[in-house]
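Case study 2.
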Amino acid sequence: MADVLRIASGQGFWGDDLDAPVRQVEGGPIDVLMMDYLAEVTMSIMQKQRARDPSAGYARDFIPLMERLFPAIAERGIRVVTNAGGVNPEGCAQALIAAADRAGVSGRVKIGRVSGDDILDRLPQLIEAGHALENMETGEPLSSILDRVQSANVYIGAAPIVEALEKGAHVIVTGRSTDTALTYGPMMHAFGWGADDHDRLAAGVVAGHINECGAQSSGGNCLADWWTMPEMAHVGFPIIEAHPDGTFVVTKHEGSGGAVTRRTVTEQILYEMGDPTTYITPDVVADFTAIRLQDEGGDRVRVSGVVGGPRTPFLKASIAYSDGWKATGTLTYSWPDAAMKARAADRILRERLDRLGLEFDAVRTELVGWDSTHGELVGPPPADLPEVQLRVGVRGRDRASVERFTRELAPLILTGPPSVTGFAGGRPRVQEIMAYWPALIRREAVEPGLHVDVTEA
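Prediction:
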C-alpha cells in the first residue's frame, strides 16, 4: 500500500487551460493526473457531434494533449483518469491508441475504457419497465418530452475506474463519471478502500471536489483577496497529497503561480453546495460540515475529519432535451445619456416586434454596464456613463419568429437613437435551446451494464 498518492488536477472543464496538464506532469512528482471535461450541457453538444460524425462525441483536444504527454507518462508510470470520453468513450480510446503510436510508446501503455453510462437508446424500455425518470424539480415524467431528448447519461461512481486500474490501465477514459470519482477512484485503488469505508470515501469525495474545478482552488476565480494572487499567467493547478487514513493535503507545484490557502480551498469547498450535510455521490454521502482545514503555510492546506454515510439506492441521470430556439443581439451606445438611448432603442424594438406579431416565450433586455449583473437597478441611470451595451435576447418554440428577430436589431442603427458605436458580433445567430432534465434512476438498472475494457496501445 502506498503511503502517499499525489493526484494532480489538469482540467476543470472542456476548454480549460490546455497547458495546465503539461505543467502538472513536468512541474514535479505526481502519481495520477485527473482531468474533468464534462458539464451537463457538454453531453448534449457531444451527442450532436456524434450524430453528425459517428467517430466524434468526445473531447477532441484531449488527443493531441495526450500525444504530447505520452512519453513522460510511460517513462514515469503516471496514471491518467478522465471523463473526456463524453458520449463516445470507444472512439476516444481508439484515438488514444493511434496517438500512443505517433508518440512512440506503443506496447508501453494500456488504455482503459469505461462505457455503459449512456442510456439514450434505452429510454423507451426503461420507461416501459417503470422507471419514470421524473424531473427532480417539477415531478413531471420523462415521457412528456421523450421525443425531444438529445442526450441521457447516468453519473457513475468509482468502481469501473478501480477495475481499470486493477487491470493495469495507464490512461482511463470514461463517459459521464461523476467529477469527484476521477480523484477518489485512484485513492480507492491505491489504499484498498472498500465500499463500506464511508468516512475515507467521503474524504476522497472532498478531495475530488477540491480538484474538479482546476485552478479555482488555487487562486483562480477567487473572491478572497483576488488582487493579491501572484503570477496568475502561469497559475498552478491543485495537487492532492492523499494518505491511506483519508487525510490529505491540498498543494501545488513549487514556483507556480496562484496560491493554496485556507481561504481559497474553503471557497472551492462551498462551490455548488446545497445541503452541506448531505453531499450525495454514487458511492457515499459526505457530510461537508465535518471538514477540518489547517493552513500549514507554503501553499499547503491539510484536510481531515470528513464523515460519510452509506450510498443511496439511486443514481442521478443527466438528460438534455430540445426546448425551442433563441437568439441574442447587441448594440453599443455612447455618452451622453448612453443608458437612456439604449432604453429607447429597446422600446422601439419591442414595439416593432409586437407589430410584426412574432411569437416568443420571452424577450429579455439587459444594459451591460448598468443593470446586467445585478438586475434592474432602482432609479435613473447616471447620465455620465461612458457607454452601455444594449443586449436583447428572445426565446420561443417558433423558429421563424426567432429568425425574424435577428433581422430587426440592425435597423436601429439608422432608425433609432444616435451614437451607436458598433453592431457587436454582426447579425444574431439562431441557436437551439438545450434544457436540462435531472432525474433519479435505481442503480440496478444501470450498473450491470457498465463495461470496462483495457487494451494495450
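The chain is about 30% helix and 25% strand.
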